[in-house]
Amino acid sequence: MKSIIETRFDFPGQTAKYTGKVRDVYTIDDRILVMIATDRISAFDVVFPKGITYKGQILNKIASRFLDDTADIVPNWKIASPHPMVTIGYKCKPFPVEMIVRGYLTGSSWRTYKSGARTLCGIPLPEGMREHEAFEKPIVTPTTKAEIGAHDQDISKDEIIRTGLVSREDYEQLEKYALALFARGQEIAAGKGLILVDTKYEFGKLGEKIYLIDEIHTPDSSRYFYAEDYKQNFPQSLPPRQLSKEFVREWLMENGFSGQQGQKMPLLTDQVIDNISKRYIELYENIMGTAFEATPYDDAFYENMEACICNMLARL
Ligand SMILES: Nc1ncnc2c1ncn2[C@@H]1O[C@H](COP(=O)(O)OP(=O)(O)O)[C@@H](O)[C@H]1O
Ligand SMILES: [Mg+2]
Is residue 272 part of a domain? Predict the structure, then answer.
């Protein structure tokens, strides 16, 4: 099984390289970013030593498509996607918060609720909610963007504004953008028989203007259910079939790992990797409505990628 878990390029004009959990981010002339979605996978903020075949291509193609399909709502950083694993765009100054929008009480929000909490990031939650139940309307539950190696922390809108992480004016704009993007995401998903359950957005500034940055509506940043399945299962308190990384998180928790200090990361077996890869492909085909055509990892893969990127950079 083959996967791409690292890249080592030196592009003309390259001024920095940042290795994120999943993506390799090259800065060109302090102005442009070349973002390569690798096959790395992270869960609970830990990166696994093995990659998931084709995950990077899947992620990049989905994000790239939905950046285009939401550009009428908020300007975004994308300029072009010159290769299945690559998006090139404007480097922005990121806001130090991640905007999470939730339509349903699922995943970490359910774990918090189950433990007895009745507010989430300052938002009061009604008594008696069940796992996977829809909120009356989608809620925004921001987190701080943690420094490398640390976990993102839940934070309330009031605290973000009070501590000056984001000005009130900007934050309220981010909130509006996030909810409008989520509504669009839900609409697109519904057209494919899916439910967009929750997702995460990042924003930044270019000059005085707010841009959507990073990835959007991918299986790494979002959770999806099958709509039909949800309709059948929820009334019977059965878990809906999920198209997301929650599958990986659950497998990890069953194997005694939830990202806490001192815990040992279980080994991803080839079978687990294959399973995860299949889930990513399944999500791609559902959400994009087309068969996934992989770009094979042949000997010329890196060379081709480099040529595609350099050709595009020469035109910018
Ligand atoms: N247009 C942009 N301008 C500046 N930073 C960006 C932009 N788009 C994405 N980023 C940042 O690039 C990184 C993407 O790589 P990722 O693997 O997600 O890293 P991380 O481990 O930091 O989440 C993120 O830190 C994200 O905030
Ligand atoms: Mg990230």
Answer: no
